[in-house]
Amino acid sequence: MAEELKRTALYEEHVALGARMVPFAGWEMPVQYGGIIEEHRAVRSSAGVFDVGHMAEFRVFGFEAFDFLQRTLTNDLHRISELGQAQYTLMLDDEGHIIDDLIVYHTGDLEYMIIANAGNHESDFAWLVEHAPAELELVDESARTSLIALQGPQALHVAGELAGPGFVPPPRFTIAEASLDGVPVLLARTGYTGEDGVEIVSGARHAAALWRAILSFPEVTPAGLGARDTLRLEMGYPLYGSDMDRTIDPISAGLGWVVPKDKTGYIGAEPVAGIRESGPTTKLVGLLAEGGIPRHGYAVLHEGVQVGKVASGTFSPTLETGIATAYVSADLAAPGTRLDVEVRKKTVPATVVKPPFVTHTSLSV
Amino acid sequence: MAHPSDRLYSNDHEWVIVDGDVATIGISDFAQDQLGEVVYVDLPSEGDELAAGDAFGEIESVKSVSELIAPVTGEVVEVNGALGDSPETVNSDAHGAGWMVKVRMSDAAETEALLSAEDYDAFITEG
User: Which domains does chain A show, CATH number per domain?
Assistant: First the structure.
């Protein structure tokens, strides 16, 4: 690995907290502080704070912004016509395969912000630039922007304490300006854990002060990418690179809900309509394993014959068993179907389930 | 990190306590710390034969899987079955209640190739 790993504005904070730093998508990131399971449980029961400053932020501004994003992204931008609204969406290539999954926020008049995966940062931006009309303002703000996720049943309480009297949290899936401990931020009521909480966008130079202010609350535990992965998989949230990539279409990935049937004219619309019409040959399903941990790439068997592959797999700290997503033949995708996962030398029984694997969280109550 | 000097260690991060011709085997505190929270331990059965240098089981944490490499050759005479229900004992007490198997050694001279605590500490410091 010749390439130098990048560091977020919070690198020194992680080292001071004794984090184990690992390479991830070209970045040196904390995978855990105390332990993945204890961090996971802290997020489910109280609150956790994550540095997700490796993710990319793009700004799109101008009279062409709406039409441009309506053409490059799958979800219908009419659904977030009010200022502050946000939506989960996909960017597809001409074959209808997934370039990235994104959240787009309607941050202002004629203005949107996109948060993209770190691993797709450069390729996403290049794709957007390639398809942008000359009149459009398209800015990659990632280098000067920090992103901190504060998640868990106590997250809003902590955000409220930092914001001061009169704080009204933005409704679910919206974003609003706020001041946290005197730092100007954009506060998005979004996340990747299945818990209530916020994602805090700020100038990179304020990130350390914000991080420390959040961690000054005893309710909050620093949480790494390890817990982020177990938390998101318990909810069945897909991860780019494991559950989807440039060979996968949104229908097979179970993401038809962000590709509205009645929307046309976006890049990839025709191939997607074709797959919808004919039905996908493989589907992404949830698997609840018994007595082993399925991991990415492991074979999925039905009566001894391989019928698919594990996409994401881990140990669920909440259920204390192996959970996974897997691409399997569409005829074996019905919940309740009994399959097996080849976990190295042994065969582990697994049942097809419809995610989320964990249903009781601060978002579900 | 200083490991206790009452036992020997292998390059594969197992510890061995020798009592007559029986070796008790576990993984070092360094190894459990590197693995993170242990969620599965897959051990052999009583009567199985281990061969020094070969895998005799697996230990799995949330993020990774590692093979357990036998430090000595012999027959398994006892298995720590409690690790099936509480694998986290490997983290909390790697050098005590987290022991894994007891082996009746067929060649006690193999232990001469193992490291002292001091040499093992030096080995892990060098990385």
Answer: 1-280 (3.30.1360.120), 281-365 (2.40.30.110)
